[in-house]
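Morning F.,

Quick status update on the modeling queue. The single chain you submitted on Monday has been processed. Sequence for confirmation:
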Amino acid sequence: MKTHQIEIQKFKAAANNIHGQVLFKVDALVSHREPLEGMEPSSMLVMTEQNARVLMALLKTQLAEFDAKKPKSRHGRHG
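Structure tokens below.
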């Protein structure tokens, strides 16, 4: 498995598609990352606190769009 360090520079846009995926356009620096001996190989996503806050806001918006597309229940509350 190839492992990388992905450093987010800027989130540009977010969208979702009919396959239930959230897509992000980003500026990022991607570099090869050597796996450490004795540890499971994995890639690392790195971002500043400011970019993490932007990511959270974009995720909330995309999740709200998914929820808006779900069919509403035909059974209302009774009582």
